[in-house]
């Protein structure tokens, strides 16, 4: 097993006034040659958008884009005709494929929206663009991981055009947990959304992350109430 820790304080940061954004990987004006991607995982942005503000219409192609609101509500419109509001507890996925345009705005005029946006390289390029979103009951993932995104849409998970899996878990303090990788040869990027967690003996604080490779299972112990995101991805690119 090999591990690399990425401290929250070492992420890229940009303050656009209406947008406060942290970049786990090189993005926009932030570039770190050591943090361009992790396997198929290309982007993990931690965004806070001011009331009524957002991203105007802009294009994407050949990228799998996942949005996870942490608090607040995000209004989405796209060239496929989808119009929706995504709230905490919901997950959105888009396959940009041959090309789409979309916009994202804070749906509230009084409260910030806080979200994670994740991009993965696709398994197959130039597919027909696709959109989906789903509500996940947080009660289902207490002291366990629930798969929210998978290549075969297992259970309630959303389908992704990549051999990757995203899982969320909420754990009580001191409850030993583990994650077993779903595909041989994959690796995991573990992101601590809230709390403090010991992962394979390494202590991670809120918004810290760890890469774990050359393993089939990862064990951890939360030191506090914690919410954890696990991104399992192939390493080849």
Number of strands: 22
Q: What is the distance, rounded to the nearest whole angstrom, between the alpha carbons of the first and last residues?
A: 21 Å
Mean pLDDT level: 95
Rg calc: 17 Å
CATH homologous superfamily assignment of the largest domain: Jelly Rolls
Strand order of the largest sheet: 1-20-17-22-15-13-14
| Total helical elements | 0
**What does the largest sheet look like?**
7 strands, mixed
Query: Helical content, roughly?
Result: under 10%
**Would you state the CATH class of the largest domain?**
Mainly Beta
Uncertain runs: none
Q: How big a fraction of the residues is strand? A: over 45%
Tell me the CATH topology of the largest domain: Jelly Rolls
Number of domains as seen in the coordinates? 2
Rough shape?
globular
- Given the helix and strand composition, which structural class is it? mainly beta
User: What quaternary form is this?
Assistant: single chain
Tell me the CATH architecture of the largest domain: Sandwich
SSE series: EEEEEEEEEEEEEEEEEEEEEE
List the helices and strands and how they pair.
Blueprint: E1 2-6, E2 12-15, E3 19-23, E4 41-49, E5 54-60, E6 64-71, E7 73-78, E8 83-87, E9 90-95, E10 100-106, E11 113-120, E12 130-135, E13 145-150, E14 158-159, E15 165-171, E16 177-180, E17 187-194, E18 197-199, E19 202-204, E20 209-213, E21 217-222, E22 226-233
């Amino acid at each position: 097993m090999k591990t690399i820790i990425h401290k929250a304080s070492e992420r890229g940061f940009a303050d656009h006034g209406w947008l406060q954004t942290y970049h786990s990987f090189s993005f926009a004006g932030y570039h770190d040659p050591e943090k361009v991607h992790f396997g198929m995982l290309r982007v993990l942005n931690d965004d806070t958008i001011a009331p009524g503000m957002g991203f105007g219409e802009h294009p994407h192609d050949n990228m799998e884009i996942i949005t996870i609101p942490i608090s607040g509500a995000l209004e989405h419109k796209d060239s496929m005709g989808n119009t929706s509001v995504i709230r905490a507890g919901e997950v959105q996925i888009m396959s940009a494929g041959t090309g789409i345009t979309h916009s994202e705005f804070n749906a509230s005029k009084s409260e910030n929206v806080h979200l994670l946006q994740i991009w993965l390289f696709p398994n197959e390029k130039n597919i027909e663009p696709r959109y989906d979103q789903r509500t996940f009951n947080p009660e289902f993932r207490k002291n366990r991981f629930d798969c929210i995104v998978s290549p075969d849409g297992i259970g309630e998970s959303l389908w992704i055009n990549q051999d990757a899996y995203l899982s969320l878990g909420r754990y009580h303090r001191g409850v030993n947990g583990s994650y077993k990788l779903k595909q041989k040869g994959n690796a995991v990027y573990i992101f601590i959304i809230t709390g403090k967690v010991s992962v394979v003996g390494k202590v991670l604080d809120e918004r810290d992350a760890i890469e774990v490779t050359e393993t089939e299972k990862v064990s951890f112990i939360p030191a506090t109430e914690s919410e954890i995101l696990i991104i399992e991805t192939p390493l080849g690119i």
